[in-house]
Amino acid sequence: MRKLLEIALGVLTAIGGFVDIGDLVASTETGARFGLGLAWVVVVGVLGIIVYAEMAGRVASVSGRAVFDLVRERLGAGVGLLNLAASFFITLLTLAAEIGGVALSLQLATSVNYLLFVPIVGLLVWLVCWRVRFELMDNAVGLLGLALIVVAVAVWRAHPDWGAMLHSATHPVVPGTESHAAYWYFAIALLGSAMTPYEVFFFSSGAVEQRWTRSDLLVNRLNVYIGFPLGGLLALALMVAAALVLEPRGIDPSHLSQAALPTSLVLGKLGLALALLGFFACTSGAALETALSCGYSIAQYFGWPWGKLIKPARAPRFQLIVLVSIALGAGLVLTTLDPIKLTEYAIVLSAAALPLTYLPLLIVANDPAYLGDKVNSRLSNAIASAYLVVLVVASVATVPLMVVSKAGGG
Amino acid sequence: MRLSELLGAEVVDEHGHTVGKVHDVRLVQEGPRPGGAGPGLRVEGLLVGRRALGARFGFGRGADRGPWLLKALLGSAGHDGRYLPWGRIRSIQARQIRITGTAGDLPRPEPLGEVPLHREQTEGSWRVRR
Amino acid sequence: MNQRHHRHAWVRQRSRLAQAVGLGLVALIATAGCTGPVRSDGVYASKAAATAEAAASAVETAQLAVQEAAAGELFGRSLAQTLAEAASDAGDAQATFDAIQPPDRRSKVLRGQLDRLLTPAASVLADLRIAARWGDTAALPRLAAPLPKLAEEFQRFEEACR
Amino acid sequence: MAQRLDAALELLDRQLVDKDGQLAGKVDDLELTDPGDNPDPPDVTAILTGPAALAGRLHTPVGRWLAKAAARLLAPGHQQPSRVPLDQVEAVGASIQLKVAAGQLDAGAGEARARRLIGGIPGAGDAAQ
């Protein structure tokens, strides 16, 4: 019974935890600009994170090794260090975007300038990482993030023409008003937001720290196979809502407030309140996870003690990195750089860096020295290989597309 | 000397032809050393090849598992790999290793099989535990 | 389906030092969206179209927010926030566009035409923002009355420019 | 029977774990010592760890710069790598188990410095759960 409850909790928090500021921004913006023309990318991204997160969880359970630990071991000191520099920079950028997202959702609820919230948000994120029962807080915000289901309800209650929607999702076209470069640029952004590397850093480090073993493989699979697709549905709901309400009006969202307008239009104040709660919870959870991921990546590369469950004094360098990362992230938002723009860059750069994380993971997941008989199945290898090709192509195309589309400006 | 001075060094034969780069150093475990300082690990030779990437990832060590994509991408280290016994080294200077004889005389490396999960140091020797 | 979208308002040059520091960190990538010097009037026209598009987006956002507020679907604070953002988006779009030197006489005419739309739009959005901040929700539909026509004109202008 | 292992594949970049199970850095390099009779191959005498050892491994300017920056930030005053004699090694596997405590290694200095920095913050000694 207790095990069942644990599994349910894991799945539920995986749903809420899937969505972060990157998904909020990317889904809303693409829905408003391309209708459902990019919906297929969300499906592709969710399948990709399922395949690789399952691998990360399995490697962590069987070998007790976290992803960045393996990155160093498999890629060597030199390539591993470049990988570390890129991953840390991107995770830090994402952390800043998440802190900005929390502050923006508070601004939307209170109408107080978001910059005033930034130091408070930074402090709270640090406190939770430092000593306030992390698991509890992470689970709490994960569950609160489920409030975002209200967006799906709003879509349902809007009584859209499901047949036409399915048709436009399965027959994607680039709207006449958009360039192909912008279309593919946003496709990469959506892929980056679904498959952000910090998710596997956090997921695998958590599994190692909670001492998952082979007996947890089922829990791992359930979390990933049920939680992530349902989380992906939330991202899709945001896109559909934007496509239904914002696209016909020609609204190109550049603020979090516009992402909430479709829900309040259909469901009124209660819907709006839940949507805002969902925004706040999702970005808070992701801020915690990215902050720790900053610490995980560096500490695991250098082989230092790390972990959110051990006394800070036993992992002082890890805690110091987390503290400095949060300060840097909050500082970046305080420069008044637009958090939404920051998010866009963070997810696009994430997409460019995806092969760096997923290639070593795929290699290790095939190595019996780490996994014994739990190495990848043919099916997951086939899917993972196909994704690796997609990720490399996306990675190579990112910068040219960014230049040609003027960062999606078209 | 450090291991890193050997890794990546260029190997040149007596005719000045490049054999490849050192991508690993094979160690052999010996019995207890005099003075009871524990078991010794001694360099036995160098693994030299043109394609070091796959070897670094552990490819070509016994079971060549994994999707064909990885194999194609990383290649198998056994492909063009050579084994350079330490005795054939004439000089090591500035990341260049000169050897006696020619590249053609160098044997293929002997595969060591899968990397064992665990080696323990007990009573002066390394014991492999799988 | 005939809306055009643009990003330039984002990268509006601001003089704050702090912003410069932040921008420096992402300078490499940020250059992709900058408003550079304009060479031909074709480029100027497309920048005008992009500005009109951004202004239309802000106007439509305000209209939607007012419509929702009238139906009692928005909290006062969210409404105030949404309208403030719409007003500042329109202002940003205008400021960015006005900072571009028109390359020739025809471009200057274009600039005049667009400004004749941007200025009233900015003023209506500012009035809405102020009323919402004061909690004067009842006044919003009346103040927002010119928005549909403005949105239409922005759209027409944009199509003419492309 | 003599056993063989490939140093880069099985030793380099592996995790060091001290006698109390605490993580103690990575195998950044190995120290090789000529036995004296020159034609004889060198012995592996120690594991080297720490940013200073890492910097010696990197042959690109960017890598060297990054490692040196890391060394300066994380272990100032430690321009020499920490040395773990081979007889202090308990076992070699997915990680390298040592017979010494992490604090006894020089690499513990960076950790101690960080501990001093954050030690003053309330709750440093409490587990977070």
Structure, described:
The complex is a heterotetramer of chains A (410), B (130), C (162) and D (129). Chain A is mainly α. Helix content of chain A is 80%, strand content 0%. Chain A has helices at 2-18, 21-34, 39-63, 67-110, 114-130, 134-144, 149-157, 162-170, 180-194, 197-209, 217-245, 256-302, 316-334, 339-364, 368-371, 378-404. Chain B has one domain: PRC-barrel domain (SH3 type barrels, Roll). In chain B, the strands form two sheets. A six-stranded mixed sheet of chain B has the order 4-3-2-1-6-5. In chain B, strands 7-8 form a two-stranded antiparallel sheet. The longest helix of chain B has 7 residues, at 68-74. Chain B is globular and about 40 Å long. Chain C is mainly α and 162 residues long. Chain C contains seven helices and no strands. Chains in contact: A-B, A-C, A-D, B-D. The A-B interface holds A 74-76, 362-363, 366-369, 375-376, 381-382, 384-385, 388-389 and B 56-58, 63, 65-70, 74, 114-117. Strand 3 of chain B pairs antiparallel with strand 5 (43-49) of chain D, so a sheet runs across the interface.
Write a compact overview of the structure shown.
The complex is a heterotetramer of chains A (410), B (130), C (162) and D (129). Chain C is mainly alpha-helical and 162 residues long. Helix content of chain C is 70%, strand content 0%.
Which tags fit this structure?
heterotetramer; A: 410 residues; 16 helices; D: 129 residues; alpha+beta; SH3 type barrels; four-stranded mixed sheet; 4 helices; 29% helix
Order of helices and strands of chain A: HHHHHHHHHHHHHHHH
Structural class of chain A: mainly alpha
Chain oligomer state: heterotetramer
Low-confidence stretches of chain D: none
Rg over CA atoms of chain D: 17 Å
Total domain units of chain D: 1
Largest sheet descriptor of chain D: 4 strands, mixed
Q: Return the structural class of chain D.
A: alpha+beta
**Approximate shape of chain A:** globular
Low-confidence stretches of chain A: none
